[in-house]
Amino acid sequence: MKIATYNINGINGRLEILLRWLKEARPDIVCLQELKSETSKFPEQAIADAGYQAIWHGQKSWNGVAILSKTDIREMRRDLPGSDNEFTHSRYIEAFINGIVIGCIYLPNGNPYPGPKFDYKLRWFERLAAHAKDLADLDFPVILIGDYNVMPTELDTYKPEKYLENALYRPETRKAYKDLVDQGWTDAIRTLFPNERIYTFWDYLRDAYGRNAGLRLDHFLLNKKVAGRLAAAAVDKHVRGWKGSSDHAPVWIELADQDVPQTKRSSNKSKPLETKIEEAETHRQENEIPIADLQTLLKDAPKSEIPLKIKPMKATLVDAPFDDPGWIYEIKWDGYRAVATVQNGQAELVSRNNLTFDQFAPINKVLESWKLDLVLDGEIVALDEQGNANFGALQNWRNTKNTTLAYFVFDILWYNGRLLTAFPLYQRREILKALLPENDLVRLSQAFEVDGIEFFEAAKKMKLEGIIAKRADSLYTSDTRSRDWLKIKAKLRQEVVIAGFTKNDGTVKYFSALAIGVYDQKGVLRYIGKVGTGFNTITQKDMMEQFKPLITTECPFDIEPDVDEPSTFRPRRLGAKATWLKPELICEVEYAEITHDGKVRQASFKGMRYDKKPLDVVMEIEADTDDIVEEANLHADMEIVKNEEPKAKKSKAAKPKSSAPVTDLLISSTNDIEEKKIDGHLLKFTNLNKLYWPEDKITKRDMFNYYHQVAPFMVPYLKDRPMSLNRFPGGIHSKSFYQKNVRDSAPDWAETMPHTNETGEEKDYLLGNNEATLLWMATLGCIEMNPWFSRAQSPDHPDYCVIDLDPDKQTFDQVIQAAQEVRKVLDAIDVPSYPKTSGSTGIHIYIPLGAKYTYDQSQLFANIIVKLVQKQIPEFTTLERMVANRKGKMYLDYMQNRPGATIAGVYSLRPKPGATVSMPLSWDEVRPGLTMRDFTIHSALDRLKETGDLFTGVLGEGIDLKTTIQKAQSVFG
CA 893 to CA 862: how far, in whole Å? Predict the structure, then answer.
């Protein structure tokens, strides 16, 4: 029996996708969540036409659950026991099907944390746990299925540190899930995949699916009565890649009719990695995507003539394996790289240097038999009986016993008039899976979504040449040494030029060793030693036939080497004499190390190479893995930002005046209560003599007077912006709390922005439109003012991007140093920037965007900048979001650029000793000696009289992000 769960995220809008998947997967029972459909609008007839009965509980906005079954359904519950009236919801439905109790669950998301929605999530969890306790011990099989909105372990997220403050990963949430499981439930996926990254959800942002930046949120919990029947499970991940799909993918389990021994449970992912690698070498993997999807996959590919004589994309050699989200891993095949061009029934295999392979005719015949026009990239190998690639056998594969020829295809560049090189790798691989017929001679090279370090160790254990790491979203760049494709060698191998051979005194062999070399950057052939093992008599005889026409009296090396030179390992001379050859032949050698004088040690001959030109043979130097991976990820982020067009029309931001008058005091009396009319509205000011900054003898009256006087400068930066109210009713040392919803508390004249949250609850955010609103917030104890980065007219498009320099153990002079590094990067790419003190310990740097880009694009851009800055001053800065991992370093915070996030606004007071102010600065002022206490409630107004508003450019035109990213790529490489 196959039982599935799928958060459909809008059943009517995605009905076609649901029906397509049901037809393909044929599950017996399906639990659906987030119907976003009223009960009366559930597509009952379409579901029935697909062969399923259904029960459902709908809801108009976010929730709604349903159970589909091929057999009779007996409904048992439409909600959990107990009640909670805070939010309207439809999150649980329960049925009896085929002798099994099925509970379909959508657990509240709970964000933002902290807040009432998170508290509600925990209460709902308590209700689920209470009901589950009764179900766990039933004498019936019970399965609780659905979207729990919980990542139980680190394996369940691609980047745990990113989610520390997310309701999906909070310790309280994870504990609630663990307590539930500990009642005696079995987590099906984690049982079958104890050490695997299994994701079921990928955000819509930043091509998360392409980077495999996923989460596991959908779970099956089985009680003891049914857990033994668990036979298999999987995620139909490819459905997430369908155009217009949900952000979740369907997940399913298979139940046997009776208990299954653990050793018989089938799951490819649960097999040892070595077994999976061995299967990838010897068997073709099943297609995950049906052929019917091919036209959909190709829909957006540009039309193009077939690219002839294209040179393949190259991988960069790095010094160590790594594991990083968004990368896939492949076997490094030990053979000849070959591009296959097939057109009009004619196939040609070409080397990486456009040399034609005529000797592999069987591969050509297979390609021609398919009647397809395409261009493929892959590796030609000779496989031994164990399925391992044998490079030495490849040159004479026809005459080598027990050797199988194979062409492992790992990429497609063009198909049927469509150029595919601008598609991301994961999409090109989907096309390959949909396109390539089953064949033993031409096979799809498998990509592994596993831990890269573990994959390398498995490859090493199996004595493979190495592995290839590829960014899943990488484009195909012909004839470039790409940072998006990396190779990590398990064995040290090097292509070398054969420049001569030696014979020792008294030997009967054709030759004793080969004199080998590589070219340097100036095109000079340098001697790197000799190779004297790895060939038998037959091989030597064949090689001598190739050597004879190349014999010359002139040494090809820049300096004639002593080929009989003794060494630590061979202290005596052997009487070796050299015969020089014209440097036209290439072979591959394996070696133990490169000595201090640049010679290979313990070199062994592996085979001749005919797919490269001698002048292209240079010594491959391993690059630092961490540096290359960081650069690749950085450039990928740049491409994402650059290629995303603005998603909204530019809207005009209100521009503040360069200067404004500083008005007289609002309250000059010593009374404790005063009433004043502001902007035509009567406001009551109470507790005026209360010390809000006790150490500095600064009262609540002083705060009101400050905000009244600074209002002409400050209000333009609050206007139309939703406000997050941080209230300190007793002054800076009192307990504070945040308030966002002002529906029942704001005065009638105050302007607000309505907002409906994910549960359908309607809230009102206060807009900081005038001085009266500013002062009303102050009467609530709002010492600091926290506006959104965007305005009500364009809530998803911020007016500026902010980089927040957040020190730990650093001095303020080091903060200034970091700020100047940010300025250098921005100046280099002609980006205007505006610094201000945070009023606490750091500096905020604003970059105008003009409401032309999304928060996600803004955050990506900030991330690119801070990565470049951190490389300049790594000794005291970090990009670690987790405080525990920062090790006392300054955090270069780019994460503030997200919807609803706020920082202290410009000219805002801060609840800090000294009554400091968040004050704009000129870049000339950002130098050692500047202190936070230079700008306080006492000095800020005098400064404004002198300088005017230095922040006006923040609300200006905004940068062109695409042009800026292109410039960054040219400047920073």
Answer: 9
Find out whether the peptide bond into 646 is cis, omega within 30 degrees of 0.
no
How many Cβ atoms from other residues are within 10 Å of residue 520's Cβ?
Answer: 12
For residues 411 and 377, is the Cβ–Cβ distance under 8 A? yes
CA–CA separation, 337 vs 340, rounded Å? 10
Give the Cα separation of 381 and 385 in Å (integer). 13
Whether the CB-CB separation of 772 and 778 falls below 8 Å is answered with no
CATH superfamily of 493-612: Nucleic acid-binding proteins (2.40.50.140)
- Angle (nearest 5°) at CA 157 between 154 and 159: 90
SS3 for 678? strand
Query: Which among 448, 607, 614, 415 has a CA at the least distance from the CA of 514?
Result: 607
| 885: DSSP letter | H
| Distance between CA atoms of residues 449 and 431, nearest Å | 18
Quick check: 915 and 704 in contact, CB under 8 A? no
The CA R_g of the chain, rounded to the nearest whole Å, is 34
Tell me the pLDDT band of 567, cut-offs 50, 70 and 90: low
- Displacement of CA 692 from its chain's centroid (Å): 45
CA distance 592 to 751: 74
Output phi, psi for 403, to 5 deg.
-120, 135
Contact 816, 928 (CB under 8 A): yes
Q: What does the DSSP 8-state code read for residue 810? A: -
How many residues can be counted in the chain?
973
Angle at alpha carbon of residue 152, lines to 149 and 157, rounded to 5°: 80
The dihedrals phi and psi of 15, each to the nearest 5 degrees, come to: -60, -40
Beta bridge partners of 515: 500, 530
Q: Does domain 800-972 have CATH number 3.80.10.10?
A: no
Helix (H, G, I), strand (E, B) or coil at 322: coil
For every residue of 339-383, which 3-state class applies, written as one string?
Answer: EEEEECCEEEEECCCCCECCCCHHHHHHHHHCCCCEEEEEEEEEE
Could you check whether 2-268 and 674-779 share the same CATH topology?
no
How many CB atoms are located within 10 Å of the residue 433 CB?
A: 20
- Please name the amino acid found at residue 588: E
How far, in Å, CA of 665 to CA of 707, rounded?
10
Domain 674-779, architecture per CATH: Alpha-Beta Complex (3.90)
Q: Which fold has domain 281-305+313-475?
A: D-amino Acid Aminotransferase; Chain A, domain 1 (3.30.470)
Average pLDDT over residues 183-203: 93
Strands 466-471 and 327-331: antiparallel
SS3 26: coil
534-538 contacts at long range (C-beta below 8 A, 24 or more positions apart): 534/392, 534/589, 534/590, 534/604, 534/605, 534/606, 535/605, 537/509, 537/510
Question: Closest Cα to residue 337, out of 365, 357, 367?
Answer: 357
What would the pLDDT profile of 47-89 be if each residue is shown by its tens digit? 999 999 999 998 766 689 999 999 999 999 988 887 776 555 6
Tell me which H or E stretch contains 893: strand 890-893
Q: What is the DSSP letter of 934?
A: G
- Predicted confidence (pLDDT) per residue in 497-554, tens digit: 999 999 998 888 999 999 999 999 889 999 999 999 999 898 999 999 999 999 999 9
Token pair, residue 310, equals 């294209």
- Within 8 A by CB and 6+ apart from 568, the residues are none
Q: Where are the domains of the chain?
A: 2-268, 281-305+313-475, 493-612, 674-779, 800-972
Q: Indicate the CATH number for domain 2-268.
A: 3.60.10.10
Burial 650-660 (b: 16+ CB within 10 A, else e): eeebeebeeeb
